[in-house]
Amino acid sequence: MKKSKYPIIWTKENFSIKIFCSIPNIATGILIKAENAHFIVDPGDGILRDLNKELKIKDIVNISDVFVTHGHHDHVGGVWSLLTYLRVMNKKTPLVIHYPKGCLEIVHIYNAFKKVYSNNITYDLILKEISNDKSFTSKKVLIKPFPVIHKEYLSDNKTTRQVPALGFKFTFKDLKICYGGDTAYCEDLVKHAKGSDLAILEAGHDDDTPDEMHMTLSEAKSIGRTAKEYYLVHVPE
Ligand SMILES: [Zn+2]
Ligand SMILES: [Zn+2]
Questions:
Q1: Which are the contacts of 5, defined by CB distance < 8 A and separation ≥ 6?
Q2: Distance 236 CA to ligand 1 centre (A)
Q3: What is the C-alpha end-to-end distance of the chain, expressed in Å?
Q4: N or C: which terminus of the chain carries fewer CB neighbours within 10 A?
Q5: pTM of this structure
């Protein structure tokens, strides 16, 4: 296990992941590169600043896919500015946003964006709702979505509900990166992290008693040890 000091960078052959940050309740921001393709995962607040430090504008405007694990603000806070920025920068290639079925945040950001800019959007913006765990491919990367357990409190601060939430496993050539998003300990994550070249695991729960929102440090480590390498993220600061 390596300490989560940001950014976290992992590269093998032509496949890499850079985690700009992953701080619970504040922001997440992840960039995946597979040869010349760039994907963004969980664009939280600050994603434009981080992308601009990392990539040339021509690479940013050619980003093809955004993957959203769930709609909490620390994972989608940068979506509006990203969509608008790409329009201002005259993006011409399509952008696909993959998101879990029922994630209202993405649907409403998309609708608001379409409404505000109506006929004035320079690129095709495509929403792809994920409603099952079927694999699909983009830019030679195989993407396997899987359901995770992630709850949130309602306004009474006692009752909880499951939010639409996914993890993603990205496979390029023989290399596998498993990112669980925000999740409690769950069997789907155990299965997909196992044997991965890299597992990115949240350890967002700050005590030792498991809950249904985040993993404890020891839960996350126990899964991480089944992958070839792992990083713990979303650890409360
Ligand atoms: Zn989070
Ligand atoms: Zn969350």
A1: none
A2: 10
A3: 18
A4: C
A5: 0.97
CA of 58 to the centre of ligand 2 (A): 31
Q: How far is the CA of 226 from the centre of ligand 2 (A)?
A: 24
pLDDT at res. 22:
97
Are the C-beta atoms of 8 and 18 separated by less than 8 Å? yes
79-117 pLDDT, tens digit per residue, is 999 999 999 999 999 999 999 999 999 999 999 999 999
How far, in Å, are 42, 106, 138, 187 from residue 97 at the CA level? 10, 9, 12, 26
Smallest-distance ligand from the CA of 22: 1
Non-local (6+) Cβ contacts of 113 within 8 A are 80, 83, 84, 121, 125
CB 200 within 8 A of CB 178: yes
Ligand nearest to the backbone CA of 212: 2
CA neighbor of 226 nearest in space, from 202, 199, 200 = 199
Output the pLDDT for position 4: 65
pLDDT of residue 78: 98
How many helices (H) and strands (E) the chain has is answered by 7, 15
Give 219 Cα–ligand 1 centroid separation in angstroms: 17
Tens digits of residue pLDDT in 188-198: 999 999 999 99
**Cα angle for residues 187, 227, 51 (degrees, 5° grid):** 100
* Phi, psi dihedral angles at 51 (to 5 degrees): -65, -40
Q: Which ligand is nearest to the CA of 166?
A: 2
Ligand 2 centroid – CA 41 distance (Å)? 14
Distance 120 CA to ligand 2 centre (A): 33
Structure-token match 């005590």, residue found: 207
